[in-house]
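Worked Example 4.2. Read the sequence first, then its structure tokens.
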Amino acid sequence: MSRLIVVSNRVSAPADPAAGSAGGLAMALSAALRKYDGLWFGWSGETVDHFTGDIKWEDRAGVTVALVDLEAQDVDEYYNGYANKTLWPLFHHRVDLTAYERSYGEGYERVNARFAEVLRPQIQPDDIIWIHDYHLIPIARDLRRLGVTNRIGFFLHTPWPARQLLVTLPHHRRLVESLFAYDLIGFQTQEWLDLFRDYVVSEARGDLVGDGGLECFGRTVQAGVYPIGIDVDAFIDARNSPQGNRTYDRMAASSAFRSMMVGVDRLDYSKGLEERMLGYEQFLHDNPDMRGDVFLVQVTPISRDEVDTYQDIRARLDALAGRINGEYADMDWQPIRYLNRSYRRDQLAGIYRAARVCLVTPLRDGMNLVAKEYVAAQNPEDPGVLILSRFAGAAEQMGEALLVNPFSREEVADAIKRALTMPREERVRKWQALMKVVRDTDVAIWRDDFVGDLLNVVITGDGDALFHQDPFHHHSQADAA
């Protein structure tokens, strides 16, 4: 049986899966690595004075983990620079925040080449390799240069940008060409796949071939849609766990007969947090009779605090939450509870279960699994309502949510009122439809579909990646919708 090698910027294989803090993606990939007797390779998160390429080996709950340290300059240019100041804002359509600095691009190329050089001796002839996310786009090209002929797949966890924006990136053609070193490229939605195809056909003068193939830069690759999901049963178990029940009881008691709304987002400008608070403020302004009857718990762990843009948004959110509370709070009621900390998965499940409404309103997002977690946490007899941005990848599947334009504060305010006043029968009907989607796109299905299709790839003598039979039969958009 072939081994599976997973490669990502940071390795999130949990040392103790029973602790309840590991995400569904980490759990699913860990299960796949145990099944295929593989290894998970990535950056350790540590820095050294001089790059050595030495691997630190760990066993995390039966998963072999291979970690490598980077130089401080590598972290500054590759991670803080090109990944987080260039590709992340660009892929989320924030060209106004995108930093195009030559040193960032050089660091990105250097670190990907270093990762490839360290990984190469660990690869056995029958291994299949699965690369994750925008940090590591060129690594397959670098592995090919080192003589690796194994099947290599790539999955993008973010959106893919529109062609008109991608061409603002210096050396954009080189970045896209490096993707053609893969055999299978996975996107989360049909929209992101269509945007990628548009660049290949319109900008790079490539061709669509067969069912899912793209021919360009002298090579044919396969590209498909693989909507990522959550570990549904594990999340329901977390909801029903002692910690999940205890958190639910605490939140229900603290609601004091008020309706609780919740938002859970990493601190990031793509999440629409300012727009969400402004929409909630508009709701309070438009519905004075409902003030005091509802409050928002906004859980926002701090991230990338060393990047200036994130320091700025944190300051603006602190000020905005303070202003809204100052304007509308009463002696026994505060409209917003703004929490800059992380919670365990079982605690989040309890919070979701207690919330009458969940606001998932990113300005642009690859999928957003909070939407699916919220649905999975609900009481089937009396479920809450999901308000979802039409610009989240999840909106392509979750049409029974209240879809909103997060840029319109009036639209968000109207959706909040509708959610809070929605009859129980309608809430149950919507939840049942949404829960079916969550079940049908479970993270294990996503994992097995991608790995199965990668195993199904046949490499021709010319190096083209073709499917042996029936490509993408697991995950058509019709099935996912």
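Now turn to a second chain, presented in exactly the same format:
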Amino acid sequence: MLFLNKPLQFLFAALLAFFPLYSNANHGENTPVNNKVETVAATPEKKVLSEDEAKDEERKEFIQHHLLDSHDFHIFSYGKNAEHSVGFPLPVILWDNGFHIFSSSKFGHGEHDAPAEDGGSYYKISHHDGKIYKTDAQGTLKENAEGHIENKKPIDLSITKSLFMIIVVSVLMFLLFAGLGKSYKKNGSIAKGAGRFFEPIILYIRDEIAIPNIGEKHYKKYMSFLLTIFFFIWFSNIFGLTPLGVNITGNLAITGALALLTYLITTFTAKKDYWKHIFWMPGVPVPMKFILAPIELLGTIIKPFSLMIRLYANMLAGHVVLMSLIALMYKANSIVGSPLAFLLSFVLTLLEVLVALLQAYIFTMLAALYFGSASEEHHHEEAHH
């Protein structure tokens, strides 16, 4: 049980791989209000939306807000005009000639609300790109001719909801598997409690993924990473189906970090035979070697890129469809349409639970294949050509 003996290394690997330094990818706002509603209100030439059209826009905004990152958790709203919200703010950490740390509740909820003030400096979240800019006491954001904001942008190290859930998942994994490791020592290598559920999964990853694809000689040095990414992706995907609205793996920064770490491990642990088959493929005519070398080298970059896109696209698409079906329940508003939309969303939710596990399995399997190709040894191969 290599995974259980080194919990600190796994926690470090998870945080290292998934810590989005600036929290900018897939960045949303701290409220469901965004550009479309603001544009209608700000430009008199735009037509005034009817009540049904306004509700449609509101549903679109809510779906987008559910998918994007933000500086607070917004669980649901209630009231006639949804004037009351249930959720909680997160810490905002900015570097602007020193650290500025304050709660995201200081930010206003509209385009013209007062900005957040800290230490005599004022900051505001733009509703155009979801990023934080330095501004004045009136919250002025200056735009150039191309529509880009010219205000100074401080370094954003805030704990957004995606980063918050990354920490939650990492701590959960640490506590869960550290406890499993202790139960092994106390009970003569017999798992107790929740470990009885997770032990077969760990053994499956070792016996059916790592050993067949990497080999018994080299699989142990990759097991910690394979187990970490499997459970991290699985747990993150499951949290994405909760009312918290955290779509971690639907964020390119997260899936990109996973893919990048997979690429770095493959690259720096690869044996010379791996590089020989890329730059000087044995058994191939010399002119073809010069043609195949750049293609093979490009392939090493395309592989982790496909890992990133596959996980991101599958999880994002599932959430979009699921949220759209839920919105359809309110749109239909009939004795037939609403129950039908509910049934479809319920079935899709069950399917998403399966997809959450399937995507973790696929990512782990492909990573094991890449590690296997990097550690594979070729003996006297040229003699057979």
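Notes for the reader: Residues 1-5, 10-46, 380-385 have pLDDT under 50 and may be disordered. DSSP finds eleven helices and eight strands in the chain.
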